[in-house]
Amino acid sequence: MILTRLKGKSDGKLTKQICKVVLDHFDKQYSKELGDAWNTVRDVLTSPSWWQYAVLFNRFNYPFKLEKDLHLKGYHTLFPGSIPYYPKSMKCYLSRTPDRLPSERHQIGNLKTYYLLNAASLLPVLALELRDGEKVLDLCAAPGGKSIALLQCACPGYLHCNEYDSLRLRWLRQTLESFIPQPLINAIKVSELDGREMGDVQPETFDKVLVDAPCSNDRSWLFSSDSQKAACRISQRRNLPVLQVELLRSAIKALRPGGLLVYSTCTLSKAENQDVISEILNSHNNIMPVDIKGIARTWSQDFTFAPIAQECGLLVIPDKGKAWGPMYVAKLKKS
Ligand SMILES: C[S@@+](CC[C@H](N)C(=O)[O-])C[C@H]1O[C@@H](n2cnc3c(N)ncnc32)[C@H](O)[C@@H]1O
Fold it and tell me: Keyword RNA-binding on this protein (predicted)?
């Protein structure tokens, strides 16, 4: 078996193991794409004891007592400074040290009070700048973390959550039921389409579209327990950009003129990030990139961004004490 034991303290729990096939593949690709920055990213990704978990409060069942406790434990709110768009209703707490609250159990009749997440997942949601009453599509929505976060920011007039995989669709429904009050759930449409068809099914419908695309998912990939499957995924990896471009094409069709689209992935891969966006910009003359670099300057206290020039978009890279990401975000406008 080609697995490497993880460094990190043993706390009696099952220790995660790194899949060496994947690590070797990442070493080759990311040392080229990220240069020296890859060394730190590699250290963080391979040390789960350094990972951090942000706490997104549920405004529909606000945990006042927990808020006090987190303050006492040294947590701070994300985005305390002034940024162009900051919905006051969205509260996310994080600590600079690796700490993880237990996940809440779902109890029928009781909404959960918080959601644990990688804080960088909020960047695509915030980049979308959702306002009350807007029509929004979450094209690849399961398990629902970003749908929940969108609903913390504003009350959309219409939220459409789509997911292609039927098992994951069930997980999405469960997440929505655990966090969102019933009257609001009734105003959310959930569908099980191949996202590549959405543009034809609902053309020029949405003010905002989020494409949180299927991608290599570097963090979980590193810990694949089956090295044969991992090797197979590595060889299939080159097909992902094709799917990502097709999903974006469909999302652009579903967007109304003047609407905004955010594309995100949780991989460092240039082929799945920058190259996908370049392909879209080169093939659509009605699509313009929206500059989000200013947002990165404001958020640099809590996140580390890749030092390499990104043609458009931002890449959050995991760092010590800021173990968030990988998360790529690009924002586009349809003219
Ligand atoms: C990165 S995950 C989305 C995570 C989600 N946005 C969240 O924050 O919880 C990508 C999702 O896209 C789904 N997917 C894969 N192919 C798809 C397709 N052709 N159309 C729609 N969704 C697809 C996957 O099943 C997966 O659930």
Answer: yes
> In 3D, which of 92, 116, 90, 113 has the Cα closest to residue 102?
116
**Residue from 8, 19, 12 nearest 43 by CA:** 8
CA nearest neighbour of 88 among 57, 120, 121, 124: 57
The pLDDT score that the predictor gives to residue 264 is: 98
Q: What does residue 194 show for φ and ψ, rounded to 5 degrees?
A: -70, 120
Give the atom of ligand 1 at the shortest distance from the alpha carbon of 165. 25
CA distance 135 to 159: 6
Q: Is the peptide bond before 63 cis (omega within 30 degrees of 0)?
A: no
Residue 131 carries which side chain, given as an amino acid letter? R
Is 266 among the catalytic positions? yes
Tens digit of each residue's pLDDT (9 = 90 or more) over 192-213 = 999 999 999 999 999 999 999 9
Residues with a CB atom less than 6 Å from ligand 1: 121, 140-146, 162-165, 168, 194-196, 212, 214
Where in the chain does DSSP place strands (E)? 3-5, 17-19, 54-57, 76-77, 92-94, 114-117, 135-138, 158-162, 188-191, 206-212, 255-265, 287-290, 314-316, 327-334
